[in-house]
């Protein structure tokens, strides 16, 4: 990814709104180390982290230097170099059903100093980020959240969940197939290149994952501060297939009291193949001298329960919202993913901020590709998406092929005469069904989606289904 963080100008509306409160909202120049360090200090303070040590600061400079950083400055505070509010953002791919990716805008590091809270600073920054996302050509904006009540007001909604899974070691008798390759212990530093390649493939096959940025693997593998106790406790394993090709890795640590069996805990298990996923799980759950294994940020449909004789050895101790998505360009977003069933479905989207409002008609063919008819300012519609992540108008031939496939040969004329089946939904509900994380019929039962008929709801469930449950396995 190559992105010039300052290629989009500072949002004039947010600048004006904050200036009226005596505050200066501005972009940080990453080559100005003093300004960058002030921003990093504010970010750490905002998330209640300790002041960064030099190794952490150097890492943060490297990672944050590639992002678009805004700070809000108050000239009246004792250290005016440290902003009273921060936000970071960057363009990145989001994996969607069908092994494809959509252009996304990641938002992170949203902090407002407790001395300046509830004056509308976060709102000004968040609304500016949506305008920047639109300007950058992103179809969706996304974030992970500290609290689930903050971001709905900007149109974000939970789109992929994550689970904490615990396995009771004594009951974990493996009955799954043996993988043909081998698992090896490796030094974390030696794993870096293979881990990057494996992660790219693991991300591509999992809707809900976002592209990894340079530096995140250093954090996962304990390479940011390798001499710290936490990094030295980290053990890394790699799965090589029967041809010796690396296909998966995990990093775990065993926490324990002296002479007591401990818990093997991991936040990272990335697999490019099912063989790799099974083999890594197996080594983790078959360790001796541990009472249990705890995996964080795992998928809500992890297959581990089906790989052990006693399914009750597995407990999901937490499962909650993790990735939050905001649809910024509905045509591009809807056109990027593949659909689980052929059909024609109209979506009447309400969006108080205007980005995605209007009627979009989805025409999905049996191969999962969809043409999206988008509203135009004059009230007419135009074709867009065409199953790609772009928003170019769908070629006529492609549209008629999709329509023919969606309608089926027997009922073609009847279907053409009828109004398309439709759903009425808020932009947040669209975000929640977008990756297949929840069925539209569940949101209809919750009174959030209104369908034109039971048939429309049933079709929507089938169309928006994803073979693989959406899953994001990192915080960002
Ligand atoms: C993507 C991420 O980075 S997630 C990390 C979020 N950051 C944190 O949790 C760090 C600690 N918290 C903070 O820094 C701040 O309290 C923030 C960023 C959550 C809020 O900043 P503020 O400037 O106080 O928010 P602001 O005054 O703009 O409020 C905007 C709206 O959000 C609401 N809001 C603010 N904080 C919260 C909260 N914690 N829970 C629910 N609603 C909230 C306000 O009531 C307001 O609602 P309204 O405009 O609809 O009436």
TrEMBL record:
GO terms for molecular function: aminoglycoside N-acetyltransferase activity. It comes from Agromyces luteolus. Residues 23-180 form the N-acetyltransferase domain. Residues 375-418 are annotated as: Disordered. InterPro entries: Acetyltransf_17, Acetyltransferase_Eis, Acyl_CoA_acyltransferase, Eis_dom, GNAT_dom, NAcTrfase_Eis, SCP2_sterol-bd_dom_sf. Residues 403-417 have a biased composition (Low complexity). One of its GO terms (biological process) is aminoglycoside antibiotic catabolic process. The keyword Acyltransferase applies. It holds the Pfam family SCP2_2. The active site is at residues 151, 476. Belongs to the acetyltransferase Eis family. This is GNAT family N-acetyltransferase. Acetyl-CoA binds at residues 110-112, 118-123, 146-147. It comes from the Bacteria. Homohexamer; trimer of dimers. PROSITE patterns: GNAT. Keywords: Acyltransferase, Transferase.
